[in-house]
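note to self — DONT lose this again. spent like an hour looking for the file last time. sequence + predicted structure for the chain T wanted, 106 res
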Amino acid sequence: MRHELTDHEWTAIKLMLPNKSRGVPRVNDRRVLNGIFWVLRSGAPWRDLPNAFGPYTTCYNRFVRWRRAGVWGQIMNALAGAHDAAVQMIDTSTPQAARSICSAGA
């Protein structure tokens, strides 16, 4: 699917994920992460997660469990630490909103 983790991205993230077994065989972490990212990108409710990512409850539960354990912060810190300071991101949502507000009053 479009926007799924690349092999390079997965390699950077997979070692940061907790891998404690809870008695039931773990589902594919990469598939779960892709499902979590799909929900976060789309803004859709968890129940609307496409079946290709597995049960929405698995993705939701893993998201919540990792949030409580601080996993997301650890991943962001690790990726930010490996970040090339010459590369910057620009959020274009604000300029787009400002343009549409300005043109609405004209």
